[in-house]
Amino acid sequence: MIFFIIYTLKYLTLLIAVLLMVAFYTVFERKIIGTTQRRAGPAIVGLFGLLQAVADGLKLLLKTNIQVSFANKFLFVICPLFVFFLSLVSWSIVPLGFNIHFIQIKFNLLLLLALSSLNAYGVILAGWASNSKYALIGALRAGAQMIAYEISFSLMLLNIIVCVGSLNLISIVAAQAYCWFCVQHFPIFIIFFLTILAETNRHPFDFAEAESELVSGFNIEYGSMNFALFFLGEYSNMILMSVLTSLMFLGGWNLPFITHLLPPMIQSIVLGTKTLFIMSLIVLARATLPRLRYDTLMNLGWKTFLPFNLAWFILTCSLLLIFDGLPTYGGYPEKYCYFSMGDLYIYTGHN
């Protein structure tokens, strides 16, 4: 009973944290877009417009929840909950510091990839359950676009996994104590950033919600809190993918030229700063780039990203094999980290 209460409190804390992050990120996004496009952003509700997200949330909460007459009522209701639930579960397995995590899982990167892939099912089923042609087209676009970039997405991460020899995000961060992977794999880092734009349905790859063609895409029939759950899930995934990019390519909570383990508070601040940088780039992409044609992403995913990532993966494996750089101790030299009884330990004696 005590463990149930503890885990309930932990997930309530996680839920509140995710809601606050999404709320402030929406204000942050509108401020950046307003500044970039030289127009006014949120400035009325609250100090500097900081309470605009709260006002928007209350507006959605007070709206009448309307269901489509000929929709599949069960799937229509369950899909928004499914998308939001996946985003919460994904946050629970991502480490935000060496000992800062909700659930400690040895292969957390593998589980995170599985959960991110399941998110597409919520979008596809929501479009189908709405019984609307616009929603169905948006759902089919989401499925086709996921297939276009998902293989390249896995190949990009395989480059890091081969260099580290581990599917644990803490071990991957530890392997970047001396050099971040964005330096060693800079082309992959750029392609990875473009891929997470497609993963989160953001400009210029927001084809599943293209308002100029599909009114609102897969969620056109959703309103009130059902729409809010999709909104929360999308923005939560954007922040999550920014954290993943920081962990995989920007050294996570490590600082350049500092090889010892930082205090927990400093780790969170360092990781948060890097995540905010990636989030800013996502917003700038929306503010500056026009939406591409749908076939452009297909050509980009299948004819450009996939061959290049495959060639880079072969090159990485070849160089590691030639210079005897393949990992032998679970991803990092044995004196720094190793797996024992399913837990990762990092020595700080090499400071």
Number of strands: 2
Shape: globular
Main sheet attributes: strand count, strand direction, barrel closure: 2 strands, antiparallel
Residue share in helices?
55-70%
Structural class: mainly alpha
Order of helices and strands: HHHHHHHHHHHHEE
- Taking all Cα atoms into account, the compactness measure Rg is 21 Å
* Low-confidence segments: 330-351
How are the SSEs placed, and which strands pair?
Elements: H1 2-36, H2 52-62, H3 73-93, H4 108-129, H5 133-164, H6 169-174, H7 181-184, H8 186-199, H9 211-214, H10 224-249, H11 264-288, H12 294-322, E1 337-340, E2 343-346
Antiparallel strand pairs: 1-2
Give an account of the 3D structure.
The C terminus is likely disordered. The chain has one domain. Helix 8 runs antiparallel to helix 10. It has a two-stranded antiparallel ribbon. It contains 12 helices and 2 strands, in the order ααααααααααααββ. With 351 residues, the protein is mostly helical.
Tag the structure with descriptive keywords.
351 residues; mainly alpha; globular; disordered C terminus
Quick description:
65% of the residues lie in helices and 2% in strands. The chain has 351 residues and is mainly α.
